[in-house]
């Protein structure tokens, strides 16, 4: 996918901003369900498409495995431990794994992402406010 498609739900509110290397439509094929969103291109876009028959023949097993891995990862996080499988499968499509090296700084000031640590340790630091002596 090149460009910036936007997925819209039934009430036309944005549920995801998509960009290069993102995909859409695979959940309806995996679940044999009707499509639940409309995608509107926000810029001139170029996409690869695959027919359902070919998806089923060549890609369905791999996509199901990837989705199952994402669901397993989500279920391992305390924030998602109570989610049922259906809900986890629905939200798993919005997650992408990012890897960071030791010492990398995750700049939350410019980020619109929420991070869930699936492996490793991180230190969360806040900037001291001038004149605030309550924080070490």
UniProtKB/TrEMBL annotation:
SUPFAM superfamilies: cAMP-binding domain-like (SSF51206)
Organism: Prasinoderma coloniale
Residues in Cyclic nucleotide-binding domain copies: 1-59
PROSITE patterns: CNMP_BINDING_2, CNMP_BINDING_3
Pfam families the record matches: cNMP_binding
Name of the protein in question: Cyclic nucleotide-binding domain-containing protein
């Amino acid at each position: 996918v090149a460009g910036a498609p936007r997925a819209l739900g039934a009430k036309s509110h944005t549920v995801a901003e998509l960009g290069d290397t993102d995909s859409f439509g695979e959940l309806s094929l995996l679940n044999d369900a009707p499509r639940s969103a409309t995608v509107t291109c926000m810029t001139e876009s170029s996409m690869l498409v695959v027919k359902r028959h070919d998806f089923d023949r060549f890609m369905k097993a791999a996509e199901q495995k990837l989705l199952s891995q994402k669901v397993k990862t989500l279920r391992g996080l305390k924030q998602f431990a109570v989610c049922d499988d259906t809900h986890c499968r629905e939200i798993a499509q919005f997650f992408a794994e990012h890897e960071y090296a030791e010492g990398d700084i995750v700049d939350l000031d410019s980020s619109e992402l929420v991070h869930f640590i699936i492996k490793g340790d991180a230190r969360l630091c806040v900037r001291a406010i001038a004149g605030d002596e309550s924080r070490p």
